[in-house]
Write a structure and sequence with these properties.
Largest sheet: 6 strands, mixed
Structural class: alpha/beta
Radius of gyration: 18 Å
Strand content: 15-25%
Oligomer: single chain
Strand order of the largest sheet: 6-7-8-3-9-10
Order of helices and strands: EEEHEEHEHHHEHEHEEHH
Length: 248
Amino acid sequence: MIKIENLNKSFGDEQVLTNINLIIPKGKITVILGRSGAGKSVLLKHIIGLIKPDSGKIFVNGHEITAMKEKELNKIRKHFGMLFQGGGLFDSITVWENVAFPLIERENNSRAEIEKAVKKRIAQVGLTGMENKLPSELSGGMKNRVGLARALVTNPDIILFDEPTSGLDPITNNSISKLIIQAHKNLKNTYVIISHNVELALKIADKIALLYGGEIIAEGTPDELKKSKDSFVSQFIKGSLDDLDLEH
């Protein structure tokens, strides 16, 4: 479980996150939903300890991480996998090498163990036979599949997703959504997804937190948010985040 308490962060005169309180339940899919500039990426970086807050606390599996030194944080980060926007692949190495990279970096796995783990995760995302391809030879959807395989290869407790469907066409978007659901069904990891995609959130989330102007203005299950009597929440559920009333 991840617990965020009274988190605040500013850069210069710009207040980016304001009094964030959020519980991300273990073994569930939580989507932090918001438009561009809402503070989603900054919040994600706090969760993995890449940014320190001005005030507030973050607990990961019961460990408070905001005051940790880098050596302690690195131990916590071993519990995380991450799918970066666009897959975040290394352009100069193959699919196999990209997926194997986290295991090779840890230096405590045999070649046979790495081979087995990489083969399993590449098959899981439906890319068997593509191991020797370079990222430049892949479509956007395939790159995200490779990114997911890499995120899964170390068997992490928690996986962070940075806009997993950004820039994808509707058919590929739907395919990635189904893949995320299937992977979660099989493994029961804790998923934290930041996205501006309302349709994705409603389709895959166990819990949604709506981030607007650096504040969480609503949270709950997709059904709870669909039934919300708040006009602003109702507006975003029925429409698009880009059409939201800026005066809220």
